[in-house]
Amino acid sequence: MERNAVLLKEACPECTGDVSVAPEVELNEIVECAECMAELEIVSREPLIMALAPEAEEDWGE
């Protein structure tokens, strides 16, 4: 990422801390909040909206 690249910012839905992402972030990409370490999913790019990422479920071989 370029040093002068403009980052997009949104509040973490878990702790309300600022989460910055690159403008080229992809829909459904998982990012991490630097403050609370929550995994967040990009659910919209315009406007930028993040939600808590779904927990990975074990399939137990089913």
Description:
This protein is mostly beta strands and 62 residues long. The chain has one domain (8-52): Rubrerythrin, domain 2 (Single Sheet), CATH 2.20.28.160. It is 0% helix and 37% strand. It is built from no helices and five strands. The strands form two sheets. It has a three-stranded antiparallel sheet, with no helix packed on it. The chain starts with 7 loop residues before the first strand and ends in a 10-residue tail after the last strand.
List strands and helices in order, with pairings.
Blueprint lengths: L7 E4 L6 E4 L8 E3 L6 E7 L2 E5 L10
Antiparallel strand pairs: 1-2, 3-4, 4-5
List low-confidence stretches: none
Number of strands: 5
Fraction in beta strands: 35-45%
**Nearest-angstrom radius of gyration?**
13 Å
Kindly give the count of domains.
1
Give the gist of this structure.
This protein has 62 residues and is mainly β.
Main attributes of the structure:
globular, mainly beta, 62 residues, 5 strands, two-stranded antiparallel ribbon, Rubrerythrin, domain 2
